[in-house]
């Protein structure tokens, strides 16, 4: 770098502080908005996913009854034999998973799987006086369930561990309790699809934030559920596992699939809408924030263009004195790069501060208390990189124009 | 010793219509000569000066300065050449208004980058003393009077000890007192430092006191005297 050129850049910059301030401000605005938009969108995505994962595991193992039709007879060996099977039907001998402990052990042996629980789910009728509702009864493993879903955090009334202490304890979803007009301490009657009826006592109310689930689900301990359905000790309808990073669920599901003879399904398979919503939000965030950055780039372009127009005579005399095109580009490009750097780093800090303020704005929905914000270092790196690229381009065009000034035309007047 | 030689220079303007500005111009200048180029507006004298100064390269013929043929060099080579060998004084001072007087004078030498900064500074101060603008060196260039600005511009032209100083109406904007001062400076430079001076001027009195007058009419040199 040429010190003389830098000196000229510096004098140009510092002699028009107002202009410098406006230029820097446009970069600060662009970069801080980029950071804020992305942090907020990521926050929303994570919040959305968090809510979803309060009732959905990353990987679900269950007995998929709609498999291929079993081969009833081996195909005939010789071609002169005709085999005819009419009205073939699939007969499910095993409903649910008979030996869930084995599946649990397989899942736990994968180091990426952090928690495993089993559930016995069954459609039942809830009855309270004349109110009679259809819903889902989940028999849960009271110890492991909260490890996957943080169930304890969503208990509005009562305590989840009560389920283990009393075999007739039940926890109702908040919506379900309202529909049944039942309160903690009341007794309600359950009827299974097999016609078994049993009375349970409500020991707690849960609200996960997902309305459809809160309106239809009740939980009892898994032992009670097995008993209710007359199933063996290791019976479960599904085994659920959480992995370290939910984005890897598909990969890890593929890893364990081979050892498990039941359907092993990562969450993405059943919830494409969730993934696409996240992707769309990301695209919107990037599009909007890049637009803001480009507008900031126009700001710099405009200011540098004005500077170049103002300094035509100076550029001409510099060229007459022996500064060549490269020197002129360097002089003006350095100015925009300095603007970009000052604005960039100030923008990073401003973006962080704006995000931190929004992070504290109260927002009471489901389990949230404030607006969701994610602090992702990559957003900050990208903001700076994009910001510098745009200031570079915005500064290069006027600098190029300055370098092409014909000194004769200017000096002759 | 020869300082500048122009051979068969032809130049055309194409805008708004084709116009033959310089026609077969040839002349030589010896080292230490103080030359005035005179003529009416449109006679091509300024155009000739910009060709000689290497700023304008659209011509046919050849120009050699200090033994170097500058015709055909690239723009960047010419920039370096101008920096080292040619000093400019224009009708307007064209100082950089945001810089101090001293910085303005030092700039071409800092660009040349052949001597340490301290030495350049000393030299710039000496030149400002010579041109009688000492004491203003830390003021902004825009804050001194017109006559002083023109003298600072001359100091800037001299900082790299150029072989040739080119002036485009160097006194065109000055009152008679400042014109006399500037003329005396040029006279002194040519005589004492053996620097060649070529100045385009409208000022007959200025021209009359030079070593040689080149008179132009319609793109041709019609007379050189004495």
UniProtKB/TrEMBL annotation, chain A:
InterPro entries the record matches: ABC3_permease_C (IPR003838), Lipoprotein-release_system (IPR051447), MacB_PCD (IPR025857)
Q: Which residues form the ABC3 transporter permease C-terminal domain?
A: 287-405
Q: Which GO terms describe its cellular component?
A: plasma membrane protein complex
**What subcellular compartments does it reside in?**
Cell membrane
Q: What is its main location?
A: membrane
Transmembrane residue ranges: 20-37, 283-304, 331-358, 378-397
Its membrane topology, per UniProt? Multi-pass membrane protein
Q: Does the keyword Acetylation apply?
A: no
* Sequence similarity: Belongs to the ABC-4 integral membrane protein family. LolC/E subfamily.
Q: What is this protein called?
A: ABC transporter permease
Q: Which organism is it from?
A: Pararcticibacter amylolyticus
Automatic annotation (TrEMBL), chain B:
List each copy of the ABC transporter domain by range.
4-226
Highest taxon of the source? Bacteria
List keywords of the entry alphabetically.
Answer: ATP-binding, Nucleotide-binding, Translocase, Transport
Q: Does the keyword ATP-binding apply?
A: yes
Q: GO: which molecular function terms?
A: ATP binding; ATP hydrolysis activity; transmembrane transporter activity
Xref: PROSITE patterns: ABC_TRANSPORTER_1, ABC_TRANSPORTER_2
**GO CC terms:** membrane protein complex
- Keyword Translocase among record annotations: yes
What family does the database annotate? Belongs to the ABC transporter superfamily. Macrolide exporter (TC 3.A.1.122) family.
Protein name, UniProt field: ATP-binding protein
Question: Organism, per UniProt?
Answer: Pararcticibacter amylolyticus
